[in-house]
Amino acid sequence: MTTAIKIEHLNKYFGKRKVLDDLCLETFTGEVFGFLGPNGAGKTTTIKLIVGLLAIEEGSISIYGNDIESDFEKALANIGGIVENPEMYKFMTGMQNLKHYANMRKDITTERIEEVVELVGLSNRIHEKVSKYSLGMRQRLGVAQALLHSPKVLILDEPTNGLDPTGIKQLRDILKNVAHNDDVCVFVSSHLMSEMELMCDRVGIVTNGALIDVKTVEDLIKNIEGKTMLYQYSVNDVVLAVNVISELNPDYIVSLIDEKHFSLEIPSDSDDETIASINRALINNNLQLYSVFRKESHNLEDAFIELTKDGGNQIA
Asked: Are residues 60 and 175 in the same domain?
């Protein structure tokens, strides 16, 4: 993997107030990296520093080895992005907007414009005025504009704001495709945990300007899981079911709920075959197995709340 963004010991002050605290972070090509934190945790400030909209006071940021301060043009040449909302000329068509932007850069061909238009799914609406576009279409046009010069890093600040579920899914699919198929580092800031769980390969969580943790979504969730997993069963004879499971493994914890339901607690490192063997034992003892499902399943939102419960909402 190639390092895309490298942030080292980044500090930022607004007056006497410290808003970023020794932030260190590294992202790689081919991944969707989620940058998560409570409102006011320092996400947008970090993004503005990465794209050169704020001056670096302490620490360093490099993009593909090019330092933002000493090699500003080389570093920024590798970045495409949308900070807050995409800005477009509404009286122009989508295609006119893209061509206007392309004229400000070198070597963007008509073929490249058509390629990104198809990528973001706007081929059949690209010649309509932007004033007729929905918010989701404007967001996709903004992504197309950000990708025109084939950047190695795509940075998006809250890209799903205001989108309906269909628009969110469309944007998610586009970003995953860009990252995994075009070997781009997609850096996404968001507060929508459910969406980040579906979109991101890794996430970094920041609160009070400090980075708390960087892990894959799966590893973050595993970190807050307990030592056991809880399942709920529905059967025709709970007493017989409890006896069967106790004979199968006396260490399993079985609790009666009512005449048709019981809960089963097994070690969290158990694999799917463990549940399969329990189910087979019940069926082989002539029990009617009506349903079984996992309870208390954790998600990224649970991990986020656990990690940020003592901070946030204190800085801009």
From this structure: yes
How many helices and strands (H and E) does the chain possess? 11, 14
Which strand (E) or helix (H) includes residue 18?
strand 17-28
Q: Is 61 helix (H, G, I), strand (E, B) or coil?
A: strand
State residue 50 phi and psi, 5-degree precision. -65, -40
Q: At what angle do helices 272-284 and 238-248 cross, to 10 degrees?
A: 130
Global pTM exceeds 0.90: no
The CATH number for 231's domain is 3.30.70.100
Q: Domain check: are 160 and 254 in the same one? A: no
Q: How far apart are CA 157 and CA 186, in angstroms?
A: 11
DSSP calls for 74-140: HHHHTEEEESSS----TTSBHHHHHHHHHTTSSS--HHHHHHHHHHTT-TTTTTSBGGG--HHHHHH
Is residue 243 in a domain? Answer: yes
Q: Taking the CA atoms of the chain, what radius of gyration do you get in angstroms?
A: 25
- Tell me whether residue 186 is in a domain: yes
Per the structure block, which two tokens stand in for 156?
């998006």
What pLDDT, in 10s, does the model give residues 31-65? Answer: 999 999 888 889 999 999 999 999 999 999 999 99
197 closest CA partner among 156, 231, 168: 168
| Contacting residues for 136 by C-beta, under 8 A, at least 6 apart | 163, 164, 166, 167, 170, 171
Residues 6+ apart with CB under 8 A from 131: 90, 91
What is the C-alpha separation between 243 and 229, in angstroms, rounded?
20
What pLDDT digit, counting tens, does each position of 241-292 carry? 999 999 999 889 898 898 899 999 888 788 889 999 999 999 999 999 999 9
Q: Quote the number of domains for the chain.
A: 2
Q: Strands 228-235, 289-295: parallel, antiparallel or unpaired by DSSP?
A: antiparallel
Both 272 and 165 in a single domain? no
Kindly state whether residues 186 and 242 are assigned to the same domain: no
